[in-house]
Amino acid sequence: MTAPQQHHVDFLVIGAGLSGIGAAHHFQAKFPGKTFTILESRGAIGGTWDLFRYPGIRSDSDMYTLGYVFKPWKGEKSIADGASIRDYIVEAARDTGIDRHIRFHHKVTSLEWSSADNRWTVHAEHDGADVAVTASFVMSCSGYYRYDEGFTPEFDGRESFAGQVIHPQHWPEDLDLTGKKVVVIGSGATAITLAPNLAEKADHVTLLQRSPSYIMSLPAKDPIAQKLRRFLPAKLAYSAIRLKNVSVAVAMYELCQKYPTFMKGRIRKLQEGWLPKGYDLDTHFTPRYDPWDQRLCLVPDNDMFRAIRKGTVSLVTDRIARFTESGISLESGEELEADVIVTATGLNLTALGDASFQVDGRDIELSKTMAFKGMMLSGVPNFAFIVGYTNASWTLKADLVCDYVCRLLEHMDTNHYAKVELQRDPSVGEEPFLDFAAGYVLRAVDSFPRQGSVAPWRLRMNYFRDLPMLKFGKVVDDAMVFEHA
Does 153 fall in a domain? Predict the structure, then answer.
């Protein structure tokens, strides 16, 4: 068997999505004389924003915080559509030549660390062959979504349905819903995005949910942002808008956590104004959990509520008994007619792209490792990863992680270190990595690394607490062990 061809880089990024392009930019700007490459499993830049193509796909965070700190968002809308976000990421890669460092259709399958050489050997599948790249440091920016398939529960009688069943993750480009009855199953961000957008062509859309989610509305265009952009220089305006939006998001989360009953009342009061008078909020808009125990769903310009008022979208809260030839039979006995059923039933998560890890010939079980500052792993040298905030913009955390990693690499260069490894503190208790009650998290969290019960092993979900620690705080920690070449 022929050994795979290899080449070596100083810094290897896994994934050419929002995080990966950002990580490459930070590294290139800080270390212009060093080499890097990006391995991307698909054939395009953009990650999630290139994969998902369903009608109405858009950001669920404002673009002034989802956008990069180094590249001001210039679009008209703060809640932007997927194509605009994809173009923004592609432009960020092209502007500084990062796109020339991407190796497409390279799916990373395994990573092997050698302490004798102080380097990783990263194996990727490309055109059916094994390609190996060695790297001094690896950063995984693969996110946590499984890209080849979404989550669909087993529905009794599915094979008897005469119409089309579609998961949003694999939306057909040629689908024509004109004059058709559509049932969207789900209550999360994807479902509430799809329903009003599909209603523009469909005869009628029914949103079928087993239980409600908290849904709020934001203006697609931020009026304060537009004023600031009109009167301030572009970079200063972007910084001011970013700070304003981060502050609002963090304050909203903290209020929901500390005063859930009060916030439930405030959300309900707003929804009463957006929905028809006398609408059954108790059944359709009152979740069993407190606000922000799961991610709060945002809609732009009341589009979901306006569709309900117009009668083009109906909300049904019930459980599915079975699929029938003409639609869905519910446990209540009601029948929903459908020509097309959309299963917006969630995503499958995967830890670090499902790649396997070895350190000096020893297999690493990710669920046995502990995350340090939410971005490095105990017992895994010269490796970092990006998992963004679940209660705010993903990119806010990504930018901070990149800042910290660059400062760490600079410290290693200055002191001629070739290796850094985190040693786990046995006195620190274990907790789930993602402390989030959403179904898609609960299904997969046992395969993820753990977090600790105390800092720096505990994952923070507060930008203003992470900012001083990751961007300006000390780089070296007692848990770190450095070694010279």
Answer: no
- Kindly state the tokens that stand for 313: 């979208």
Among 291, 312, 343, the domain-final residue is 343
Q: Who wins on pLDDT, 86 or 463?
A: 86
The dihedral built from the CA positions of residue 400, 401, 403 and 404, taken in this order, carries a sign that is positive
CA distance 73 to 78: 9
Residues 6+ apart with CB under 8 A from 194: 54, 55, 56, 168, 184, 342, 344
Cβ-proximal residues to 29 (8 Å cutoff; 6+ apart), any chain: 70, 96
Give, to the nearest 10 degrees, the angle between helix 82-95 and helix 18-30.
20
Structure token digits, residue 434: 């993602």
User: What is the secondary structure of 240-271 as a DSSP string?
Assistant: HHHHHHHHHHHHHHHHHHH-HHHHHHHHHHHH
> How many domains does the chain divide into?
2
Contact 359, 381 (CB under 8 A): yes
Are residues 134 and 245 both part of a single domain? no
What is the phi/psi pair of residue 163, to 5°? -90, -160
Q: Give 406-458 pLDDT, tens digit per residue.
A: 999 999 999 999 999 999 988 999 888 876 656 666 676 778 889 899 889 98
CA dist., res. 157 & res. 322, Å (int): 5
User: How far is 114 from 358, CA to CA, in rounded Å?
Assistant: 9
Of 112-126, 164-178, 229-243, which one has max mean pLDDT?
A: 112-126
